[in-house]
Amino acid sequence: MLRFAIRRAFWAIPTLLAISIAVFLMASLVPDPPEPHGRERAEIVARERDRFEAIEEARRERFADLPRFFNATPRDVRDVVRGCVAHLVADDDQAVEAAHVLAETGSAGFPYLLPSLDRLAPAARGRVVAALRPIADRMGVGGDPALVSTDTAALFWERFWEDRAVEFTRPNVRRMVARLVIHASEARERDLIGLDTFALDDLLAALAANDDPEVARRLLVVVAHVTARPSKIGAGAGAVPIAEANADWQRWWFLHRSDFVVLDGFERIGGSVSETRYGKWLLSAARGQLGISTRDGQPVSAKIGARGGVTLSLTVASMLLSYALAVPIGVISAWRRGRALDVSLALCLFVLYSLPTFVFAELFVRSVGSGASMGLPIVAMTLGSLASLSRYQRAAMLDVLRQDYIRTARSKGVSAARLLVVHALRNAMMPTLSLAGLQLPALFGSAIVVEEVFGLPGLGFETMRAVEADDHAWLVAVVLLTAIATTLGLLASDLAYGLLDPRLRERIVKMEAA
Amino acid sequence: MTGRPPHARPVGSIRRAAGRLFGARLTLACTAMLGALVMVALLAELLASDFPIVCKIHGRVYVLPCVTQPAALAGLPRDVRMGRGAGDWAVGPVVGFGPYTIDAATPPLSPPSVSAAHWLGTDGRGRDLLSRLVYGTRTALGLALLAVALYVAVGSVMGALSGFFGGALDFVVGRVTEALSAFPLLVVVLVVQALLTKPSATSLLLAIAAVRWTEVARLVRADVLVASQQDFAMAARALGASPARVLLRHVLPQAVAPAIVAGALGVGQLVLVESSLDFLRVGLPEPTASWGESLAESRAHLGAWWLLVFPSLCVLISVVCSNVVGESLRDALDPRFSPTAAGGAPDITPPASSA
């Protein structure tokens, strides 16, 4: 059984990947936030710094700066520094922006910048050095008199690198971060701030590994200082609990990490897949980060958790009810096959199946009114799904009734009720029961309609509000959720089948493979 | 599928199918009803319009102004346009109102009455319900038939190729099929329409086809797989027929039946889905007349029973008819489901609901 389960589960992996690609393509239907170019871009950078930052952040959030499926040359801090220096040397449209980016990149770029500083022409070197000024302030060495004039500043940075290059190594940074985690002191904090953005990778890794709020607070203070981004902790405006601030920073690091670290070896090979829109999207979806709902600013995953209960109880109850009705109907119509009862039941079910769910829901709302009760929504959802389930049950029952052992039991004089319930139903229930895994996600379509008509605050109701408000993150998340639920439902029903009837295992796996 | 004799020619089986098909009175009635609905959809302008079919107004004869909508008539008052002026005459449509015309003479939400101008009453904006239902037929059936034609074609091609050639192509098509069939139709179409900046009937059509072709592909693939391993296919190969010829002339005809049945049943399902989408107001763009849109109107006006009953009847009739026709086709074309094989009444087994 275990071997069968593993083989069957293995086959779900390519399907889930294909689902993720389909949903990703659906999400790509939403147009990207526009990116300013050329002169216009330079003007926005020079005049409206905040607006430019907001545009960039919105594009980052949608991974719009990356190629779609494959990235032959993933960008890392070396490329960032090289690009900035090129713009500063050429002194072109984007030089202002480049100076700003260079300052933001901070000491993470030093190993690729400072050693080659003396190779630049004096004028260009002056512009680069001027751009480095904010970093010096951030690191706490801004008071040095050498920084006042650009000529001496270049010398200052060369000397800085000669003296302190040894500090800018991974083992050293890791040790310093570990020391700060163990015990706080102002000197240790200052030392780390002196390392600037070079320490970010280890700081964020330590943050991710530490649950202790006191340690997290210490680390966040350093991180916030180094990146000049509000830490969101403490007592000020926009402050949130430590855990939430930590999650926010981890998300920021997920979007910006490649600006501060070097991608080498395996990371570079992996980067050709992970540093793409699809890769980033899949990674963040796998971490449960489905985006922020634009309607109320809540994380989508939290909202799904809050709203999912209503929908889940609605669909589960409806499924139980439809089984409770469909099994007896199927058994009776198989028993009275071709008689008046069978035909009239078939006709009734046929009419029920041929009406959209919302017509039942509307009829109920009109006759009783949309109270808070769950009873009528459940009945409305059930009526539509009853037909297919009871016909499956009828077909399964017909199969069983044709078997020899039923004829034997009959000839021994077993009563009709005992024959049906004890002898036949046990075997005939199996195919129907194994459909349960598929039934649940398929009911989600009806759940949208029913929740909308009755005003029940579940996933479907929220989906309709999201449609009205163009809340794209929510819609993509819902479609992904239902597709994954269906695949897992199918997996569960196949496993149940294999558990109940070992003869079918080989066939199930083969059908998957073929 | 192994039960089918290998020499069965598709032409013969379709003729036999037709004989059985029209033998049953219910099937005949439903086919006729479906045909009538298609005629309504095609001839909507002759049934409901602001313009007459033929008329002479101000000494000029107009032929089919209801289709051409000439500018000379558009400005005229209603009475004159319908040929009530002195010396004028007109052969009017059954309903003298277009689907978007707001009748100023009748208040909105007037109930149905045979003697009044609006036989089935008016909706919340004062538009004639019968006229909206006539044009709704065009929307529902037009969309369903187009989408079915599209996805049956795509599904047959994909299924035939993957079943016949197998290998990596089969694997990829199989995974894509499985992945796409995990999306509930209503949810996908709703989300796609909501994500697009400009949702349209075309995008609705494409979204439906993108999800639904998988069902046909799976059915066709299974039959192609069986047929291509049978003796007659091998014989054709041995005679030197090219793979294309074996597939098109010998194998594919064996797999036509499930595609046709899936198409017939699909029409009903798509009518259901389309009405649900328009009911939720995420289907077709706003002024389009559709049954679901009329039903959505009924939500805003709970007292107006006619806005609920008549569109529901339209949906019910077309879905029942297309399902009956589909089931009869299945019985006729596919021996596995024939009444004699299963014993007793024909199995009316609706496929798993998606609406």
State the helicity of chain B in percent bands: 55-70%
Q: Report the CATH superfamily of the largest domain in chain B.
A: MetI-like
Helical run tally of chain B: 16
Q: What is the class of the largest domain in chain B in the CATH system?
A: Mainly Alpha
Cα gyration radius of chain B (Å): 24 Å
Fourth-level CATH superfamily of the largest domain in chain A: MetI-like
Count the domains of chain B. Answer: 2
Give me the Rg of chain A, rounded: 32 Å
Helix run count of chain A: 26
The CATH topology of the largest domain in chain A: MetI-like fold
Mean pLDDT of chain A: 84
Number of strands of chain B: 3
What gross morphology of chain B would you assign?
Answer: elongated
Poorly predicted runs of 5 or more residues of chain A: none
Mean pLDDT of chain B: 80
Stretches with pLDDT under 50, minimum 5 residues of chain B: 1-12, 338-355
Strand content of chain B: under 5%
Do you know the CATH architecture of the largest domain in chain A? Orthogonal Bundle
Distance between the termini of chain A: 20 Å
What does this protein look like?
The complex is a heterodimer of chains A (514) and B (355). Chain A has three domains: 91 residues, no CATH class; 93 residues, no CATH class; 214 residues, MetI-like fold (Orthogonal Bundle), CATH 1.10.3720.10. The longest helix of chain A has 36 residues. Chain A has 514 residues and is an all-alpha fold. Chain B has 355 residues and is mainly alpha-helical. Chain B has two domains: 43 residues, no CATH class; 209 residues, MetI-like (MetI-like fold, Orthogonal Bundle), CATH 1.10.3720. Chain B has a three-stranded antiparallel beta sheet, with no helix packed on it. In chain B, strand 1 and strand 2 form a beta hairpin. The longest helix of chain B has 37 residues. The N terminus and C terminus of chain B are likely disordered. Classes of the chains: A mainly alpha (514), B mainly alpha (355).
